Amino acid sequence: MSWNKKNTDEMQDPVSDTVLDDALKNFRHSVHAWSDAAYSRPRTEMRIVARSGWRLAAVWALVSVLAVGSLSAGLYEHHHRQVLAQIRAEQEAHQRQLAAQERARQADEELLATVDSDISRTVPAAMEPLAQMMDEGQGQ
Amino acid sequence: MRKKAVNLGEMRASTRVMAAGTAVKPLTAETAEDFAAQEFACVVEKHRPQVFRFLLASTRDVDLAETLTQECFLKAHRNWKYFRGESSAMTWLMRIAINLQKDHWRNRRLQFWRQTRINSVDVDEASDWLPSGERTAEQQLLAREQVRQVWKAMNGLSERQRTVFLLRYVEERELSDIAAATGLSEGTVKAHLSRALSKVRAELGGGR
Question: What is the ipTM of this complex?
Fold first, then answer.
């Protein structure tokens, strides 16, 4: 490699070859050390994985139960509200019906009273002056 | 057991040498199978740690590396009879390991929602591993920082660059071996290595 080429490479690459070589060597040694340790580790850790698998299954089961519970509670609440609304609507309708019946009864009574009054005040033409006198006498 | 004829012409060179040396007994299918089984057992014993190391460095996940290593040797065992010795056994095994790793990442990308646990250790944890040599505390610290930066640079590499980089600088394989294991040409391997090194250089330069 010519001086110019080498110089250009060094300017482009902020890291010298020595540092790069050191870094790669350290990296290789690190991976080898890790791999040797992991390869020769006791396989009892497989049980830990299995246990964490059980834990995961338990968490999933719990989450499923909670989800189903929340859904059921929501549905029950919705149904309960619907029933209450229906009962309230029936009660209101019944009250409206009672009020209408009461109003009708009062109207009937008023009509009957008016009719009674009108009938009681209707006298033959010959008795009209006498009736007027009775009215005046009652007013006094 | 079913008897079958053994074609000596198709057997590997080592097998042929042995067959020629032991001409006293005729080579039956059983003895050939026994020999192949012993040969495969030797290959497993010799190369398993290397395959595991490559997969560990690729995935940074001990459990996954173990699983993929097992799958690799299972696949190798099934296909051992088709291995003709055109490349070294290690290169052949690496090829299987690389394909398994590719399949794993592809499946994981497609079915990411099925994978609820991620066991990969982070860069800092992976950098903690250093051989306990005769080093000062300062040197240890510097080495750890360099290792961390290389791991960090590896995060930015493509899958192929990472594979090539690991085979070259961790497994110290020849370019021709890497080309055979990855199915790439030597020129492409060089190009990937160059790009990977540039990124490592940049990371090391930025970290200083």
Answer: 0.76
